[in-house]
User: Which sequence fits this backbone?
C-alpha cells in the first residue's frame, strides 16, 4: 500500500523559512498530484497547496509547494514564519491502483519558536 | 458561503451502529464529489470513504470496507456515512469534506466541523 512519509516535527523562528518533506513509498511522485493541508489545534483541516504547487485564494504567498522526482518527494515551504503558522501539516496524494482512494502522510507538527 | 454542517456522532458500544450526516449549503451540491476523513485521538488524518457527484463511483479504505456505507441525497444536499460493526479503533473525529470537482481524484477544498464517534463499552 502507498505510504507518504513526513518528518514528525519541524521548528523555526519567526521570519525564518522552513520546509516539510513528503516522500512517496512507491510509484512516481509526479504520477499523482500532491496536496497540503493545515490543521490548527482544535480546528478542521484547510487546504494550503493543491496540485503540487497551486495556492488557493486567501492563502498567503509565503506558502509554496514543489515536487522533486530525484527524491520522489514533495515539499511544503513556508517563508517569513509567523506564530499563526504553528499547526500540523499533512500531505495527501492518491493510490495509483485506486484513484478514488486518498492517502495522507502522517503529519508534521510545526512549532514557531 | 460554503458550509458543511455535521451531526450524528456519539457514544456507542462495540458492535453498534451510527449514522453520520453532513448538510451542505452555499454551493451546488450535486456538482461535487464528497469524502469522509477521520482522525483518532492524537493521531493523523485517515481517508475513510468517498463518493462522486451522482453516487456512481464509491471508494472505501480497507479498514472500513464491508462495515461502513457512504451515500448522498442530492435532493436534500446531504452526505451520509452509516457506520456499522463498530470497533474501539473506530473512535475518532469524523470530518466530511468536499472535493474540488465532481469526481476523483480531486483535492478536498472545504471541510466540515467534525463529529466525534466514541466506541466504548
Assistant:
Amino acid at each position: 500500500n502507498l505510504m507518504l512519509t513526513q518528518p514528525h516535527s519541524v521548528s523555526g523562528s519567526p521570519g525564518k523559512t522552513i520546509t516539510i518533506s513528503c516522500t512517496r513509498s512507491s510509484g512516481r511522485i509526479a504520477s499523482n498530484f500532491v496536496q497540503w493541508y493545515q490543521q490548527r489545534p482544535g480546528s478542521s483541516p484547510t487546504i494550503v497547496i493543491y496540485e503540487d504547487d497551486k495556492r488557493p485564494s486567501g492563502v498567503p504567498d509565503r506558502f509554496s509547494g514543489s515536487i522533486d522526482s530525484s527524491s520522489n518527494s514533495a515539499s511544503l515551504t513556508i517563508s517569513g514564519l509567523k506564530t499563526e503558522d504553528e499547526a500540523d501539516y499533512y500531505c495527501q496524494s492518491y493510490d495509483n491502483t485506486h484513484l478514488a482512494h486518498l492517502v495522507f502522510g502522517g503529519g508534521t507538527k510545526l512549532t514557531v519558536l | 458561503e460554503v458550509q458543511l454542517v455535521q451531526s450524528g456522532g456519539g457514544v456507542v458500544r462495540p458492535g453498534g451502529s451510527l449514522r453520520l450526516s453532513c448538510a451542505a449549503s452555499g454551493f451546488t451540491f450535486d456538482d461535487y464529489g464528497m469524502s469522509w476523513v477521520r482522525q483518532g485521538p492524537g493521531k493523523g488524518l485517515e481517508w475513510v470513504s468517498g463518493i462522486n457527484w451522482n453516487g456512481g463511483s464509491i471508494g472505501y479504505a480497507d479498514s472500513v470496507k464491508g462495515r461502513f456505507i457512504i451515500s448522498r441525497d442530492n435532493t436534500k444536499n446531504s452526505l451520509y456515512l452509516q457506520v456499522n460493526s463498530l470497533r474501539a479503533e473506530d473512535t475518532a473525529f469524523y470530518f466530511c469534506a468536499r472535493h474540488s470537482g465532481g469526481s476523483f481524484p480531486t483535492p478536498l477544498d472545504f471541510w466540515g466541523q467534525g463529529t466525534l464517534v466514541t466506541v466504548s463499552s
Remarks:
- Residues 32 and 94 of chain A are 6 Å apart (CA to CA).
- The mean pLDDT of chain A is 96.
- The radius of gyration of chain A is 13 Å.
